[in-house]
Amino acid sequence: MRPTASRITGLETTVFAEMSALAARTGALNLGQGFPDEDGPDVVVEAARQALRAGHNQYAPGPGLPVLREAVAAHQGRHHGLELDPTSQVVVTTGATEGIAAALLALVNPGDEVIVLEPYYDSYVAMIQMAGGVRRPVTLRAPDFRLDAEALRAAVTPRTTMILLNTPHNPTGTVLSRAELQVVADVATTHDLTVVTDEVYEHLVLDPDAEHVPLATLPGMFERTLTLSSVGKSWSLTGWKVGWATGPTDLVAALTTAKQWLTYTSGGPLQPAVAVALTEAYDFPAALRTSLRERRDHLVGGLRDLGVPTHLPQGTYFALSDVSDLGWSDAAAFCDALPERAGVVAIPASAFHDDVEAGRHLVRWAFCKRREVLDEALDKLARADLHA
Ligand SMILES: *Cc1c(COP(=O)(O)O)cnc(C)c1O
Question: Which cofactor does this sequence's record say it needs (predicted)?
């Protein structure tokens, strides 16, 4: 084997690719990877088709098409009351994934510590490592998965430079409350930290009592916060990989500098269509929310009826179960056995923890699938022996 760089040591294949391959190999129903099995709005798909036919097939400008940057600025204004200059405070990225990569490469020096909520989205781990940073996880713990203010304060060291936040949070479904965000803001202000906040599920808050509050809207936070989002989750277009970063001019400029050497630009014909999503199809996420709430209740209720204790998430499209009551000491073993036992694939959340004990019993299910698929999965689970 030829030598490889330490930058990628331990980052081999993501658990999603592994579990999706397992689903394909065994013909099992895939409740693992979080992509919907129904596409986003026709008017948006049609806009992309027209853009392809109208010859929008060459490079879009590096920071993104003006029409899309304006639509993103208008979206941040309409939904969150943030007033942005579309030319200097908005940049289009190749999904939120590139936003995460470019933000970390632009803002983290080797040896800098980055505080991150765990269970974490796995690209955070990879990109903190590739940037040469050191991750300092703060654990959202079962059964409630709320932010532990003391743990957050205790995670700060003289080397901390950044908090990488995610709300609504994958995979716990926690939507950080205004009070929890105020704790984050206080820590960031006290220690002069930059915050990168991943808000790709901003429109997928399913609990009427919960509310998505962008961290950048808290007093004094805009100046130190980069906000990331994308069209994928909220408009059921995960394959398009069109996202955006917004924030103060200096942070957006830094992110753009790194981004231009990653992809420079992407999705030329998709960018005008995403502008249509944010304007003409702005109400699509509200309808998706209603239907996702039903599907969440159906899956969580079904799992609980089967004796699988399952947390009701406030948002996103994931629910976490604790399989220790079924006699499993390890969620990974449960997930390995599940395709053969039941013909269903789920993801062990232990993969998203440094604190292995905190995640050992947790299994993640995606409920962004058609009702029939969830029914079939629950039927299969009901017929299987789920005990260790
Ligand atoms: C899906 C997801 C992303 C990736 O977003 P893309 O726009 O598809 O790149 C980023 N963060 C979280 C928490 C996600 O669940």
Answer: pyridoxal 5'-phosphate
